[in-house]
Amino acid sequence: MKFLGRKTTKTEKTSAPKTSKAKSAKAVVRKRAPTHEEIAIRSYELYLARGAEPGHAEEDWLQAERELSA
To answer: What's the whole-model pTM score?
Structure first.
């Protein structure tokens, strides 16, 4: 250690130990599940993108769920 006036400095660099608190805070953050309305809106958008072709409602719904849950 070098003494410079009232301050004491170390010549080697040290870092503070990492705490598990930061890790647990990140683990708690979770994405919420999409609502029924959000899925319905996205499903309708997919239907329109297909050219409003009927007969694919279940496909569109499942795709919308996958997209919004990712």
So the answer is: 0.57
For residue 42 the two structure tokens come to: 């996205």
Identify the pLDDT of residue 37: 98
- The confidence band for 54, taking pLDDT boundaries of 50, 70 and 90, is very high
- The rounded distance, in Å, linking the Cα atoms of 28 and 33 is 15
Report the C-alpha gap between 38 and 60 in whole angstroms.
13
Mind giving me the DSSP string for the chain? Answer: -EEETTEEE-SS---PPPPHHHHHHHHH--PPPPPHHHHHHHHHHHHHHTTS-SS-HHHHHHHHHHHHH-
Q: CA-CA distance, 15 to 58, in Å (whole number)?
A: 55
